Every structure is written in structure tokens, then in C-alpha cells.
């Protein structure tokens, strides 16, 4: 099947369909001002209360003399995991507010852990 130049459709002229004078219906402004002001306070309260609460659970478990059941061990593990999250929460909030890529600090920590 050999097509000649006459059988192939010519390129359409898209200039008829495109208008340079179009304006967007509205401007989108991403305003995170309230989030940037209130967010750190809320996260600070969560961090402080979470650290105190989970520390009390761990200390209570450490001084608890009775035989430990599986439920007690599970609650201890949940308290430790939550405590680790609460300790990392300020770094997470700082990263969200400033787009911090952790730079040299991350490299030194990864070398320390390796």
C-alpha cells in the first residue's frame, strides 16, 4: 500500500482553534498562613503530652512487679513506638514547614547508624 501525497490528509491549521487572549476563570492562591501559624502550636502540644504520657506508661511498666501478660507487653511496645514517633514529630513538622531536606545532618546520622 503506497500512498501518494494527494491521499494523505494535510496538516490541520491549529491556529484557528487556539486563542492567545484566553484568561483563566479565577486565580488560585495557595494560602497556608493559618496552617503555618497554628500548626506548630498544635504539634507542640501533641509532642509534649505524647512524650509525658508514653514515658509514664514505660516507667509504670518498669516498676510494675506483677507477672507481665501478653497485653502488658503489647502496650509497652505501642508506648515505645508512639514515643519514637513523638520524638520525631518536631523534625516532621519542620520538614513540612520549610521543605528541609535534612542536608548534612542526615548524612552524619546515616554514617553513625551504618
TrEMBL record:
Annotated compartments: Membrane
One GO cellular component, as annotated: external side of plasma membrane
GO molecular function: C-C chemokine binding; C-C chemokine receptor activity
Main location: membrane
GO biological process: calcium-mediated signaling; cell chemotaxis; immune response; positive regulation of cytosolic calcium ion concentration
All copies of domain G-protein coupled receptors family 1 profile, residue ranges: 53-114
Chain segments annotated as transmembrane: 41-64, 73-94
Record Pfam families: 7tm_1
Domain of life per record: Eukaryota
Keywords: G-protein coupled receptor, Membrane, Receptor, Transducer, Transmembrane, Transmembrane helix
Protein name: C-C chemokine receptor type 6-like protein
Organism for this UniProt entry: Lates japonicus (Japanese lates)
Amino acid at each position: 500500500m503506497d500512498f501518494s501525497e494527494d491521499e494523505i490528509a494535510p496538516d490541520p491549521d491549529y491556529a484557528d482553534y487556539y486563542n492567545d487572549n484566553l484568561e483563566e476563570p479565577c486565580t488560585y492562591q495557595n494560602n497556608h498562613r493559618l496552617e503555618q501559624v497554628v500548626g506548630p502550636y498544635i504539634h507542640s502540644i501533641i509532642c509534649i503530652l505524647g512524650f509525658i504520657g508514653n514515658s509514664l506508661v514505660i516507667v509504670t511498666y518498669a516498676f510494675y512487679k506483677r507477672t507481665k501478660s501478653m497485653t502488658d507487653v503489647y502496650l509497652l511496645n505501642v508506648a515505645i513506638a508512639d514515643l519514637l514517633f513523638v520524638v520525631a514529630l518536631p523534625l516532621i513538622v519542620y520538614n513540612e514547614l520549610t521543605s528541609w531536606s535534612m542536608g548534612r545532618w542526615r548524612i552524619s546520622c546515616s554514617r553513625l547508624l551504618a
